[in-house]
Amino acid sequence: MPAVHFTLLLYSKQVADFITSKGFDLYAQNDFAFMTNVFSMLSSVFDYTPHFTIEDFFTPNVAVDRKVSFLLTIIALIKSKQADLIQNGYQIGDQETPTLNR
């Protein structure tokens, strides 16, 4: 879970701000609430649904290959969104979101 947290909130300030501007607060939450919001945000903002449940995420030795794939997908989505935001001139704190490619 630290890798998910880093990727979503620390890797790109632009993407973290963009996620927050979409109404998703991923800061200062317990682990379950954080991942619940991550799943919801991924579905809403990135049109991505993980191939396992939140309960599976917290169960050791369950869906390990899917968890690794999930992390790699998140990294790719965030890198792509960061490139789109930069290309479209998104500035941290922008209230209006420029037209972005997914």
Quick description:
The protein is mainly α. Helices cover 62% and strands 0% of the residues. The chain has one domain (2-87).
How many domain regions?
1
> Which term fits the overall shape?
globular
Global mean pLDDT: 89
Give the proportion of residues in helices.
55-70%
Q: Which spans of ≥5 residues are poorly predicted at pLDDT below 50? A: 97-102
Beta-strand residue percentage: under 5%
Number of helices: 5
The computed structural class is mainly alpha
Biggest β-sheet description: none
String of helices and strands: HHHHH
| Terminal CA distance | 24 Å
Radius of gyration (CA) equals: 14 Å
Count of β-strands: 0
Please give a handful of descriptors for the protein shown.
mainly alpha, disordered C terminus
